[in-house]
Every structure is written in structure tokens, then in C-alpha cells.
């Protein structure tokens, strides 16, 4: 079987993993959204407490529309929590809120991977917008120089995703440690926290794996074009 065909099948399998991971994170969030945290604190209250305890009084906590739209904005220094997280006192809500605060703490401490990720973001953002056109155009026109340039730009976008992995895992690790230490959850509730955060982490792993395999497939196509 042709190596490029094999790679295409592997990429499709990785894409299937991405879809499965997305369903899993939604399922985990839905399940643990029905279980109240013993502290009774909402996502907003947990976030505010964590930020204040780490001297981040100037970091705001705001609600944002949608589900699973939670994020930390390093430019405005704001933790934005989706409405189901901001107002809820569930295991899922406090887990997500603590995770986003983990990013704010990383920012304060100039966590290496996060700093690198921020510096790479403009390049990766530009590259991810241009690379698909160069890759498709290069293949359609048989212009392998153009295709090669597309591979280089796509590599920058993939590097950004790879660097994102330690940032996300570290934020989750910080979140779990803080929640237990400060009594936001009891030890018996750690299982639920891990289920929510691990499912979210899996989406990053699956997406990165898919991107890496796509990159490898493009490289093999480029190499085979010279044979």
C-alpha cells in the first residue's frame, strides 16, 4: 500500500479521535455539572478566591456567553467564565474556574511555556490563516516550492499547539492542588475534578496529534514529489 495512502488513513483516524475527545469533554462536563461541590461555592467565587489568594487582585472575573468558552485573556488580564461555570457550584464549574485561574498564575510567574506560547501566537495565527491556501494552491498547480512554503508555515502553527500542551497540563495540575488545599473540594471529589480536566486535556492531545500527523503527511508528499 502506498505510504501516502497509509498516512491519509492514519490522519483520518486521528481526526476521529479529535471528534471523540470533543464528545467526551462535553459528556464529562454535563455529568459533573449535575454534582454539587461540597463547598457550595460558584465558579465565580472560586475564581475570585484563588486570584485574591495569589495577589491577583487586578485580574477580573467576567461571565461570557456560550458553553465551554472559558478562557484567560492575558492582554486584558481577565478570567472569562462561561455562564454555566460562572453561576454554578458544581464540580465541573469549580474545576474549570480553577483551571483558568491556573493560567492567570502562570502569567504572573512568567511560566516558561506560557511565555513562549504568547510570543509564538502572532506567528502561529498568521501561519494558520495562510498555510492552507499555500498547501492547496501548491498541490493544484504542481508548484512544490509554494507547497513547501505552506509546510513551513503550517509547522509554526503545529509548534504552537505542541507548546500549548504543557501549558494546559500545568494549569490543571495547579488547579487540582489549589482546590484540595483551600477546601474548595474534598478529597473524595478529586475523581470528578480529574474526569473533567482530563477530558479537556484529551482534546488538546488529540488535536495536536492530528496536526502532527497532517504535517508528516505533507512532508511525505513533498519528498515523494521529487522522486
UniProtKB/TrEMBL annotation:
Lineage top rank: taxon: Bacteria
Keyword hit for Transmembrane helix: yes
Pfam family membership, one: Zn_peptidase_2
Keyword entries, A-Z: Membrane, Transmembrane, Transmembrane helix
Keyword ATP-binding: no
Transmembrane regions listed in the UniProt entry: 6-23, 120-140, 146-167, 201-223
Annotated protein name in UniProt: Zn-dependent protease
Species annotation: Melghirimyces profundicolus
The organism's taxonomic lineage, starting at the top: Bacteria, Bacillati, Bacillota, Bacilli, Bacillales
Amino acid at each position: 500500500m502506498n505510504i501516502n495512502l497509509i498516512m491519509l488513513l492514519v490522519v483520518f483516524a486521528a481526526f476521529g479521535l479529535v471528534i471523540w475527545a470533543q464528545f467526551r469533554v462535553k459528556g464529562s462536563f454535563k455529568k459533573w455539572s449535575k454534582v454539587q461541590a461540597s463547598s457550595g461555592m460558584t465558579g465565580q467565587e472560586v475564581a475570585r478566591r484563588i486570584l485574591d489568594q495569589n495577589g491577583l487582585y487586578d485580574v477580573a472575573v467576567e461571565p461570557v456567553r456560550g458553553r465551554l468558552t472559558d478562557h484567560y485573556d492575558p492582554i486584558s488580564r481577565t478570567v472569562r467564565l462561561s455562564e454555566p461555570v460562572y453561576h454554578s457550584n458544581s464540580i465541573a464549574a469549580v474545576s474549570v474556574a480553577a483551571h483558568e485561574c491556573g493560567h492567570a498564575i502562570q502569567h504572573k510567574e512568567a511560566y516558561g511555556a506560557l511565555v513562549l506560547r504568547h510570543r509564538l501566537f502572532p506567528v502561529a495565527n498568521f501561519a494558520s490563516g495562510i498555510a492552507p491556501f499555500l498547501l492547496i494552491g501548491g498541490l493544484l498547480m504542481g508548484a512544490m516550492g509554494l507547497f513547501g512554503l505552506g509546510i513551513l508555515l503550517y509547522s509554526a502553527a503545529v509548534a504552537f499547539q505542541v507548546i500549548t500542551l504543557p501549558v494546559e497540563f500545568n494549569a490543571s495540575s495547579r488547579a487540582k492542588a489549589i482546590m484540595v488545599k483551600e477546601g474548595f473540594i474534598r478529597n473524595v471529589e478529586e475523581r470528578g475534578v480529574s474526569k473533567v480536566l482530563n477530558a479537556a486535556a484529551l482534546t488538546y492531545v488529540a488535536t495536536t496529534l492530528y496536526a502532527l500527523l497532517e504535517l508528516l503527511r505533507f512532508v511525505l508528499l513533498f519528498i515523494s514529489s521529487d522522486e
